[in-house]
Amino acid sequence: MKVLRSIHVGLLCVQRHPEDRPTMTSVILMLGSDGPLPSPKEQGFYVGECTQDSAHSYGISSNNDLSISILDGR
């Protein structure tokens, strides 16, 4: 149940409007208690399905067929 509670609190933290997000103090209290949690609203990171046509119309498509990212640690 702790995992589901952590996911629920995480969803509250990524709500679209900052005023809907809990404060860090509230997050700590929510994670440390077993009380009821508010229902999360629309998340800010979700943009919906992205089809090839919609990606091209918004200018977020790539002309490359392959993209490589190399991560270098510090």
Give a summary of the structure in a few sentences.
The protein is mainly α and 74 residues long.
Structural write-up:
The protein has helices at 2-13, 24-32, 52-57. It has 74 residues and is an all-alpha fold.
What is the element layout, followed by pairings?
Elements: H1 2-13, H2 24-32, H3 52-57
So what's the overall shape?
A: elongated
Number of strands: 0
Order of helices and strands: HHH
Radius of gyration, in Å, reads 18 Å
Helix content: 25-40%
Report mean pLDDT, rounded to a whole number.
80
**Count of individual helical segments:** 3
Strand percent estimate: under 5%
Q: Please give the alpha-carbon distance between the first and last residues.
A: 36 Å
Characterize the biggest β-sheet.
Answer: none
Low-confidence stretches: none
Category by helix and strand content: mainly alpha
Structure keywords:
mainly alpha; 36% helix; 74 residues
